[in-house]
Amino acid sequence: MILIFLSLTWQLTAAVNEMVAMRVISELPSAGYVYGSQQKTDAKPEEKYNVRMKPARFSGPEHLQDLSGKCFKCRDQKYEYVMCPFHNITQEDIQAYYEPYRGVLGVWSDWTIENNEFVAMNMIEGSRCGEGTHRSTKVTFSCGAISELAEVTEPEKCRYVAKFKTPLVCGQNAMVVYPRLPGTLQRQWDEVEQNWQDGDLTEKGYKRQLEAIFVKAGFHLSPDMKRSLLHKAAGKTDESCQAALEAALAHVSQLEEELKLKDDIIKELEENKNIA
Ligand SMILES: *[C@@H]1O[C@H](CO)[C@@H](O)[C@H](O)[C@H]1NC(C)=O
User: Fold this and answer.
1) Residue 29 belongs to what domain range?
2) Per the record's keyword annotation, is Disulfide bond included, yes or no (predicted)?
């Protein structure tokens, strides 16, 4: 009898550890059995997404800072999308009745710059999409009467385009890059343009030098910066895993406590039997 209880303890411990790895603590197999009617708790809203990367800092035209901290929604037949400029874009299935799909379509990283204009916010490192790839989104800007997320499409598998309209970009120079660079970088850009015109640079060299300027200005994310943001998000996950692990271990010692109690009762019963 005691042996059965001991092996049960081990099984529970192993099961709980496995559950921690999968982060489904609310579904401990023992909950109903040992504690009677313990209620399953739904994941908190901010826990329903697995976020791989910490958003980059704000960058780009200063007047767009008004958008930071706001979120914009739109729907199509199947999904609701929520785009938070300079933070993230997510997708939730609104057709499914049971455990709808929720995914991160990207986390704010940097700007797509074309012809001296900020044309799109790059949201990268979203939820997994097949082997080794992750969802990503380009949020394009165009002039509109109100700020709104007009539509989200998926022209290529797991590569999304979100169309954002706002009166903030209606001015002629609202999205021009050059005037928003510090003087030293403006002079570097002048030089690069000159060398390009003089034929001293290949197209590849020209693009590489511009890229270096945009990285220095903070408009493009450097590979190092990206690594660090990925690392920071992973650190957060470690912390919440740690908390979950500790909660589960506390649960296990509670179970062990109860099992000991039952052991004692059994021992007592057996002793009584022997006496009888
Ligand atoms: C997206 O960004 C908003 C605004 O900062 C934040 O409240 C929300 O938790 C973020 N969502 C995810 C999945 O990170």
Assistant:
1) 2-177+219-275
2) yes
* Closest ligand 1 atom to 87 CA: 2
Q: Is the minimum distance from the CB of 90 to ligand 1 under 6 angstroms?
A: yes
Radius of gyration of the chain (CA): 28
Amino acid, single-letter form, for residue 135? R
Adjacent-strand bridge partners of 72: 83
CA distances from 113 to 2, 68, 177, 184, 211 (A): 70, 20, 8, 19, 10
Token pair, residue 29, equals 């197999």
Name which residue sits closest to atom 13 of ligand 1, judged by CA.
49
CATH no. for residue 77?
Answer: 2.70.130.10
Q: What is the DSSP letter of 179?
A: G
Please check whether residue 252 lies inside any domain of the structure: yes
**pLDDT by 10s per residue, the chain, length 276:** 444 444 444 454 444 444 444 443 333 333 333 333 333 344 445 457 889 999 999 999 999 999 999 999 999 999 999 999 999 999 999 998 888 899 999 999 999 999 999 999 999 999 999 888 999 999 999 999 999 999 999 999 999 999 999 999 999 999 999 999 999 999 999 999 999 999 999 999 999 999 999 999 999 999 999 999 998 888 755 566 667 777 788 888 888 888 888 888 888 888 888 776
